[in-house]
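Pasting as-is:
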Amino acid sequence: MTELKVIEGTLIGKEYKPGISFDFKISLPLVECDALAVLVEHDGQNDANVNAMLRLADEGKAPYCISIGVMPGKIQMPDGTERGMRMNSYDLFDREYGDFIVFELLPYISETYAVKIAESPDMHMVSGGSSGGISAFVMAWFHSDYFHRVYMSSPSFLAMGRGNEIPYLIRKYETKPLRIYEEYSENEPNDYFGWSRAVDEEAREALLFAGYDFKFSYFSEEGHCSRYHDLDEAYKRGEWIWRDWQSEKITAPRNSPRVDQVIPPTSKWEKCDSFPKKERDFTPMALSDYEHVVLSNDGQAFYAANSSDDIVYMYVNDDAISKEKGILQAALHTIPRFDPRGAIDIAIDRADRLFVLTSIGIQCVRSFGLIDVILDLPDSAKPLKIAITDALYVETKAGIYRRVLNETSTKANGDSRKFISYYD
């Protein structure tokens, strides 16, 4: 088997995770190649994964890979004691730890140790168990332009840092270009922040529902992360994760059935030159305090929202309209530290579906009040406004974009309101 060079180091976060110190260990294969794939691991290196990747590479079933095991961060308190920052990094539904890895740690390692890392996200994998498992998924979720391969063992999608919301967001968002392998067991912990086996199954079903490139293994009569350090299992999962690595590009195989109701499978954001002229509907004086107000297609109701509030309200359009009579129409999804929390702008399509522009995506609200789809934003710049005419338009600080919608959203469908229920 190819020899490995082992390097250990420490990096303190600057722009991301500032002041938090992270120890890391690198296993570098001593081979001649233009660039190495990368495996980032949580809680330090997993020797089973390192050795399995090396064996697979020697057999041509995977690329040679620099394995980087990162220990949970720590800070020094004024009295000289150390405080562990594992929860702060791993358990939050938050992008900052991934930002630290992608924008600070990997460039530092590449420059300091003269390692050429392959540029393609298909050559980048992230791995972890328990809280490290949810963190591996979250890192790839927010950085799907960098990581395309994920392994998670007994991932803790639990109510420790809003991770319990992730399986439901998986179902609603567009499917991301990720290949994911999940392992979990029968005897998972059952604690005050949730039952791991239940949430592992919830995540499994969500990934299947959303159409991900996904495989799972379940181990009866075993416990938490039971096969995480098993070399044979590491080889088997690595073989699946890296299958056809030289010829097959990782893409999202399909979207969920709900997303397909809003956009055609081939619909992508495209830059355009102009944003449609958008005239605000007449707004009753009673609703003038709202930043955004639109009238339903049949004129029976107004929808109103503010950027500071994660609620969209409905007002019956009658002579007695007043702000006190607002009915909760939709509770918007939020992600910690994404601001503003509420509606940046709103638009309505011909089927009375609200498109709510938020900092975490375009949240689509059925007339019944359910959010069933969240469309990704066209870029990472600040979103500004949204419109629906012949297509969906979004303007951000970086430009104007257009995206094709299904005809039900843009074609006239009569004047009568279609009331839908939970299932339609």
